[in-house]
Specification:
The protein is of the alpha+beta class. It is built from seven helices and six strands, in the order αβααβαβααβββα. Strand 4 and strand 5 form a beta hairpin.
Length: 190
C-alpha cells in the first residue's frame, strides 16, 4: 500500500448518464456550500478526457484523482461555471439566450424556487405581486434548490435539495424530476 491515496476506480467505465449524474451532484454540492438565497448559476460540461487531450496543461490544474478518472472513464465530465451571464429578466429568457460552442458536451443550471403542494396552487392569485405574497406566506411552501444537467443527446439528470432537509443525503435525484427545466437546458445545446 502506498502513502498516496489513489482513487478507487470502477471495474468498468460508467455510462454517460452515470457521469452526468455525478457531475450534477458535484455541482449541487458545490453550490450548497454557498448557502441559500443565491443567484442562478450556469455551467458548461465538457468531457474531461477530451479537454485534457486538447489542452494537456489542464492536468496540472485538476486534482490528480480527476485526471485518473478521466483516463479510465471517457464520459467523465468537468464543469466550468460561466461568469458574466447575459442580462435577462427571468430564467427562461436567460437560457433562451445561451448558445454553447461545439466543444461543450453538456450544460447545467442551478436555481432556487418556492414550491407548493398541488392543492395549495389552486388559490394562487393571478396578479404577480399578490401571487408572490401568497407563495411567501403559505405555511406549506418549500424552498428548494434545483440542479439540472443535460448532454447534447438529451440525456439528463436532476438534483433537488429542500431547505427544510438541507443535507447531502436528503437530495432527491432522477433523470426528469423537473421536465420543463430539463427541456430548457437541452434547448441551449442545439
Amino acid at each position: 500500500m502506498s502513502d498516496v491515496d489513489e482513487p478507487i476506480l470502477p471495474l468498468s467505465p460508467p455510462s454517460a448518464r452515470a457521469s452526468l449524474a455525478e457531475a450534477v451532484r458535484e455541482i449541487e454540492r458545490h453550490v450548497a456550500t454557498g448557502g441559500w438565497d443565491g443567484p442562478v448559476r450556469v455551467f458548461a460540461l465538457v468531457r474531461t478526457a477530451a479537454a485534457l487531450a486538447a489542452e494537456p496543461g489542464l492536468a496540472a490544474q485538476l486534482p490528480p484523482a480527476v485526471v485518473a478518472l478521466a483516463r479510465h472513464d471517457e464520459h467523465h465530465l468537468t464543469s466550468v461555471e460561466q461568469e458574466d451571464l447575459p442580462g435577462a429578466t427571468d430564467l427562461e429568457q436567460l437560457l433562451a439566450g445561451i448558445e454553447w460552442p461545439a466543444g461543450v458536451d453538456g450544460a447545467a443550471v442551478t436555481v432556487e424556487r418556492v414550491v407548493l403542494p398541488p392543492a395549495a396552487e389552486e388559490g394562487v392569485p393571478t396578479d404577480p405581486d399578490e401571487a408572490l405574497a401568497y407563495l411567501m406566506a403559505h405555511p406549506d411552501r418549500q424552498d428548494v434548490r434545483i440542479a439540472v444537467g443535460a448532454l447534447r443527446d438529451g440525456t439528463s439528470w436532476c438534483a433537488v435539495r429542500s431547505r427544510s432537509n438541507d443535507s447531502d443525503d436528503s437530495v432527491g435525484q432522477g433523470p426528469d424530476l423537473v421536465p420543463g427545466l430539463v427541456e430548457a437546458v437541452v434547448a441551449t445545446l442545439h
